[in-house]
Amino acid sequence: MNLKTNMLLIEDDKNTCSFIITALAKCGYHVIPAYSGEEGLRLAASDCPDVILLDLGLPDVDGCEVLKSLRCRNHTPIIVISARTTEYDKVQALDLGADDYITKPFSLAELMARIRACLRHKYTCSPGRFYHALGLNIDLESGTVSLDGEIVHLTHVEYQLLSLLAEHSGCILSYQYIMNAIWGPYTDDNNQILRVNMANLRHKIERNPARPQYLFTEVGIGYRMRENESTDISPE
Ligand code: CA
How many Å lie between the centroid of ligand 1 and the Cα of residue 109? Predict the structure, then answer.
């Protein structure tokens, strides 16, 4: 993690590119720019970036197609940075495998925070995985969940839901992504079963389910779990 982080920035707008490159360089990131979708795909394969920043409005290929191709090839975190601000666009990008979505104009502080979250996730989601935040501990190897030292008893589905969110903590998971991951691709579009399980889960792990500290709703899009604070990949 101390090695210099390589970022691939796929963005055709030269001004945006130079702004991001300059800003990230100051924070110690090395940024490789790609000004088209094709160039981005080529550099993603040849340069093995740690994180990919992807604009959706590209001159040659639609960014969603680039996203699909990138996701088919590997699990590098992808943050979409787009001027498309509708819920539909965000949901579509997240369903296609984006780890996060930032709308333009964005603040540099927000971009940096999202990048750090993606990197933390990339480096903590390895064998011996452990989630810890504000007294909530999840041992993703043994499947044990505890809150303030007390074991929390979850149903099988509740645990699947919690562990999925914990493994992607800090990132938004769309309703459809979660539905597919837990109930399979053939469930209908009704998210009722997900909402019921999420409500039950919140009653078990949130101190005040009405003001969640762990499981946040991204209205109309999906859920995001509080970032993992565990820097140690093992529970000891
Ligand atoms: Ca563009």
Answer: 21
